[in-house]
Design goal:
Length: about 70
């Protein structure tokens, strides 16, 4: 029997208190990404610090830091 680990479609985190709806369907985003997606603030540069794909030179978990880069 093969078990696949569920991952967030945006940040690839495997553990979250709640799975949320995203652009790819129900329960495809972790809690952090799902909240940002629903509010319209989910940008490619956003990653929760716990994400395995988090790279501090490319990503941030603060919306203000991300929007400052576009100015």
């Amino acid at each position: 029997m093969k078990f696949e680990t569920k991952r967030c479609a945006h940040c690839e985190v495997e553990e979250t208190p709640q799975w949320r709806n995203g652009p790819m369907g129900p329960k495809t985003l972790c809690n952090a990404c799902g909240v940002r997606y629903k509010s319209g603030r989910l940008l490619p540069e956003y990653r929760p610090k716990a994400s395995p794909s988090f790279d501090s030179s490319k990503h941030s978990n603060y919306h203000k830091k991300i929007t400052r880069r576009f100015r």
